[in-house]
Amino acid sequence: MRIGIDRERCQGAGMCALSAPELFDQDPGDGRVVLLTAGVPTGLRPAARLAADVCPAGALTLLDDSDAAERDRAGAAAREHEQAGAPTGDGSAPA
């Protein structure tokens, strides 16, 4: 399991840091979420789920490792496609 955060969406309520202090902290400057580790150890998965559930802004995203790996593969394939100068999905050539 991996964690994604959206600092722009974060309201600084601190529920994540209270629910899972091993995974989250708050920025002392603006109070927004700071991710301490993107990978979640097995023993902290329940705390990560709780933190995502109680976040009032919905700023936390939990990804299964297989989801994250698939997204990484898709992004790499798209970058290779662009670098090769292949047409984009809408039929136009990349700029």
* Gyration radius, in Å: 17 Å
Count, helices: 3
Which percent band covers the strand fraction? 5-15%
Instruction: Pick out the low-confidence regions.
Output: none
Distance between the termini: 36 Å
Q: What pattern of helices and strands is seen along the backbone? A: EHEEHEH
Order the strands across the largest sheet as they lie in space: 1-4
By secondary-structure content and strand pairing, the structural class works out as: alpha+beta
Calculate the mean pLDDT score and round it: 84
Total beta strands: 4
Shape summary: globular
The biggest sheet amounts to: 2 strands, antiparallel
Helical coverage, percent range: 25-40%
What does this structure look like?
The chain contains three helices and four strands, in the order E-H-E-E-H-E-H. The protein has helices at residues 15-19, 45-54, 65-83, and strands spanning 2-5, 24-26, 33-35, 60-63. Helix content is 36%, strand content 15%. The protein is globular, with a radius of gyration of 17 Å. The strands form two sheets. The protein has a two-stranded antiparallel ribbon. It has 95 residues and is α+β, with helices and mostly antiparallel strands.
Features:
single chain; 95 residues; alpha+beta; two-stranded antiparallel sheet; 3 helices; 4 strands; 36% helix
